[in-house]
Design brief:
By secondary structure, this protein is an alpha+beta fold. The protein has a single domain, classed as q2cbj1_9rhob like domain (Jelly Rolls, Sandwich), CATH 2.60.120.620. It is built from seven helices and 14 strands. Strands 1, 2, 3, 4, 7, 10, 12 and 14 form an eight-stranded antiparallel beta sheet that branches. Strands 5-11-8-9 form a four-stranded antiparallel beta sheet, with no helix packed on it. Keywords: Dioxygenase, Oxidoreductase.
C-alpha cells in the first residue's frame, strides 16, 4: 500500500518556504485592484504561484501518473486517462493527486495560493479537492462551458473558489481557460456535460446570458502562473491542436465553515460527513488562517 499523503497537514518537502511572520507574507498579497477585479469579473488571471524548481518537481510526478501501473493508484478519487466524449481527442482528468505524491501534496500549501485564496474568500482557507487537467499536443480535448459549483452542490453555502495553475504556457492555441466575465452573478445553471459539446450550454441560457457569451476572455498564462475564479463563474477551454501539451493542476478550496449537504460520501472513498456538519478532518484540511499573521 502506498503512503497516503492526506494524513499529513503540513509541508512534506522543502519545495515551498512557509513565511514565519507578517513581513514574509507581504510579497504574496494581492493588491486591492486585483481583489476588486475578482469580485467584479468573477476571475483573476496572471497570479504567479510556482517557480521553476516547483514546476519541474510537479511535472516529474505528473509523468508517473500517465503510467498504467503507477504506485498509489488506489488513492485517486477519480482517474480518467481520457474523459473526452470525442474519440479523436484526449482529456486526462484526475482528482486526488495530493494523496499520491509529495509535490502535489505540498502545492496545496503554496504561499501564493493560500494568501490569495484567503483574501478572495474573506477568511480561513480549507481544502476541497484537487484536479489534473492535461491536454496532449495536437489532439487535446475540450472542457465544456460550466460552473464549478454545479458539481459541488453537496456542500454549502457557496463560499468556494478554484485556482488553475499552468504547468505549461497556456494560450488560445493550446486550449487555455476562457471566462464569461460577470457570470458569477448568474444563478446556478443545470449541468450540460464537462468534456464534450461546447455548444450544449446554449440550451440553459436566456437571451441576455447568451449575448454575454459572445465575448469570452482568454486567460493566457505563463508556466507557473494561475487564474482564480468564483464557483459560479462560467468557464471552459477549447481543443489543443498545436505541437506542445497544456497541463495544469487545479486546487479547489472553500472558506472555513462550509458544511456537508448530504449524508453520502462527498468524494469516492472518503468517509461521509453528515448533512449539516462542518467540512473538516483528514481529507479537508485547514490550509491557512489569516488571523495567525494579522489582518489580510
Amino acid at each position: 500500500m502506498a503512503r497516503d499523503w492526506s494524513e499529513l497537514h503540513e509541508l512534506a518537502t522543502d519545495l515551498f518556504s512557509w513565511p514565519t511572520d507578517a513581513a514574509g507574507w507581504e510579497p504574496y498579497r494581492l493588491s486591492k485592484d486585483q481583489i476588486d477585479t475578482f469580485h467584479e469579473q468573477g476571475f483573476l488571471a496572471g497570479v504567479k504561484i510556482l517557480n521553476d524548481e516547483q514546476i519541474e518537481a510537479l511535472k516529474s510526478e505528473l509523468a508517473e501518473f500517465f503510467e498504467a501501473d503507477h504506485e498509489g493508484q488506489e488513492l485517486w478519487y477519480e482517474y480518467h486517462t481520457n474523459e473526452s466524449t470525442i474519440p479523436e481527442t484526449v482529456l486526462f482528468h484526475a482528482l486526488g493527486a495530493w494523496r499520491l505524491r509529495p509535490a502535489f501534496h505540498d502545492v496545496l500549501w503554496a504561499p501564493g495560493f493560500v494568501m490569495a485564496a484567503s483574501q478572495l474568500l474573506g477568511g480561513s482557507v480549507r481544502f476541497w479537492h484537487d484536479q489534473l487537467f492535461c491536454k496532449p499536443a495536437k489532439h487535446g480535448g475540450v472542457v465544456a462551458w460550466h460552473q464549478d459549483y454545479s458539481y459541488w452542490t453537496r456542500t454549502k453555502p457557496i463560499a468556494h473558489l478554484t485556482c488553475w495553475i499552468g504547468l505549461d504556457d497556456a494560450t488560445n492555441e493550446n486550449g487555455c481557460v476562457q471566462y464569461i466575465p460577470g457570470s458569477h452573478k448568474w444563478d446556478l445553471l443545470p449541468i450540460t456535460g464537462l468534456a464534450g459539446n461546447m455548444e450544449a450550454i446554449r440550451e440553459v441560457l436566456n437571451d441576455e446570458q447568451w449575448e454575454q457569451f459572445q465575448h469570452p476572455v482568454a486567460a493566457e498564462l505563463k508556466t507557473g502562473e494561475a487564474t482564480f475564479h468564483h464557483a459560479l463563474t462560467v468557464h471552459g477551454s477549447f481543443e489543443n491542436r498545436i505541437d506542445r501539451p497544456r497541463r495544469a493542476v487545479v486546487v479547489n478550496a472553500f472558506r472555513d465553515g462550509v458544511v456537508s449537504d448530504k449524508n453520502e460520501e462527498l468524494l469516492t472513498g472518503v468517509p461521509p460527513i453528515a448533512q449539516g456538519q462542518k467540512m473538516e478532518g483528514q481529507f479537508f484540511p485547514l490550509l491557512f488562517d489569516p488571523s495567525s499573521i494579522g489582518s489580510t
